[in-house]
Design a protein that fits this description.
Length: 265
């Protein structure tokens, strides 16, 4: 891994500059995505369409597209010089990222019940994004991020870590509720009940947004903030679309249920 990084960058200053640029580029991509999603829904799941390429088996798609977000950080930590890996704040932040993507790539895909095939373009974009983001977050945290030794006791780190854990738990619990709406072999849709779905239509998305907002607060960097902003843009659009879709499909859909933020929106 070091040989590849040395071939790509002439100095550490240059790589850090590129990591900063990649973060600002991700923020710009989030703005463009926001504008695009005012006119189209993210094309997978219930909004999948053959306009976006041939269908890829849903379990295969989730496994392969998310795997780089686990394998790229793992390769960096195992096979590149990691100047900051012995620092506790860096270790804990990397652990958060690993925990999420270990579950998302190695467990989540194989639990899916009756999911729609993913159009190839959506699959390819997700795959490239996971390489991009896996490198951005893991390389910054393992080799460059500077935190004071008492950063783990700072209110931002403590609050952010608690948010990360709460969000992760809500996300996993909500995905579990959705999965169990279908018996093996079923592919249709039902009204989700229980957990945070009692309050919002996008309970799994709310969990993931809280998770990465917490990661950004604890990480206190433009790199982690860029990922949180991108997540907010994609998942809030999906939550709005799902909410409208449920209201149109189910006459008995709970009227008090909000889109994404309990009691507010
Ligand atoms: N960080 C990010 O930027 C990002 C981006 C995208 C997704 N994610 C995460 O990835 C996970 C999956 O996202 P997603 O967009 O696929 O979520 P989703 O649209 O809620 O679907 C999740 C799964 O549940 C099924 N499902 C959803 N609603 C259902 C209902 N009412 N009745 C029966 N089955 C239902 C879906 O089947 P169908 O396929 O048949 O619809 C799919 O298999 C979430 O945890 C999300 O937070 C993160």
């Amino acid at each position: 891994m070091d040989a590849i990084l040395n071939a790509l960058f002439s100095s550490e200053e240059e790589e850090l500059y590129v990591l900063d640029c990649l973060s600002y580029l991700m923020m710009s991509m989030a703005s463009v995505t926001f504008l695009t999603l005012l006119f189209v829904n993210v094309p997978y799941g219930r909004y999948a369409s053959s306009k976006y390429g041939f269908p890829v088996n849903v379990k295969f798609a989730w496994f392969v597209q998310e795997l780089p977000a686990f394998l790229v950080p793992l390769s960096l930590v195992l096979w590149s010089s990691c100047a900051k890996i012995t620092h506790l704040p860096n270790q804990l932040l990397l652990l958060m990222f690993f925990c999420h993507y270990m579950q998302r790539s190695l467990i989540y895909p194989f639990l899916i019940r009756g999911g729609k095939s993913t159009p190839f373009i959506s699959f390819a974009l997700a795959f490239v994004f996971c390489i991009y983001n896996g490198y951005l977050q893991a390389r910054y945290l393992s080799h460059y991020a500077e935190y004071s030794s008492d950063w783990v006791t700072h209110p931002c780190f403590i609050t952010g870590s608690c948010m990360w854990f709460l969000g992760w738990t809500i996300n996993i619990h909500s995905d579990h509720i959705l999965r169990n709406l279908r018996k093996p072999g079923e592919t249709g849709y039902k009204i989700p009940r229980g957990g945070m779905f009692e309050y919002v239509s996008g309970a799994n998305f709310l969990g993931e947004i809280v998770e990465w907002a917490g990661f950004a607060l604890a990480g206190h960097s433009v790199h982690s903030a860029a990922f949180a902003v991108f997540t907010v843009v994609v998942l809030s659009s999906r939550a709005v679309a799902h909410h409208k879709w449920y209201l149109a499909k189910f006459e008995d859909y709970p009227k008090s249920r909000k889109v994404l933020i309990p009691f507010v929106f």
